[in-house]
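Per-record layout

source: Streptomyces virginiae
name: DNA-binding response regulator
length: 227
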Amino acid sequence: MPRVLLIEDDPSIREGVGLGLRRRGHEVQAAETGEEGLAMMADFHPELVLLDLMLPGINGVQVCNRIRQTSEVPIIMLTARGDDFDIVIGLEAGADDYIVKPARTEVIEARIKAVLRRLSDPVGTRPGIEGHGELTIDRAGLTVAKNGERVALAPSEIKLLLHLSASPEQVFSRQQLLEYVWDHSYHADARLVDACVRRLRHKIEDPARSPRYIQTVRGFGYRFGPL
């Protein structure tokens, strides 16, 4: 089972979630503050991070930004509120998914499995290396390069790009992308898709405001190309 780093300042949630995940076979280390969690990253090498959005000192968004500077580890944000602003800034900082607290351990475990499944079984993957203008996509190696330099992408970003680029010109609705990329079969939050697209455009488009690769189909969703 994957190693999980839990960064949560509420002791009851920290202990309850940690205990529940350990009972399911996860190795869990828990931190009370963002500073403590960042210090644990180097030694623990987690395979997934559960990160509370509202932390004392360095908040969850700042922690997420710092992790993304050096690591592509999947991050699931925990928020006590369904506040639109909090959720959006968490996703924009590089989180792959979010859970509104309180949440049962079964729900958290299901989200963990869904996020990790994106890397172990990428949608639309086929062998070979593809060239798309300035972009080079290595589907087998799950890497992307722009002008010969590797682009660091979070799991949700690489999964989204692989899925869109596997079917150039095909238009995908936000709900379809939620199902394929995030494994959310129910009517989930389309902000996951929009935030991921904005992050991805910032990394692969030049300039990001004039998208060349990921194009918006107004009122429906997104498509890849044409170049």
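summary: The CA atoms of residues 36 and 222 lie 39 Å apart. The two ends are 41 Å apart (CA to CA).
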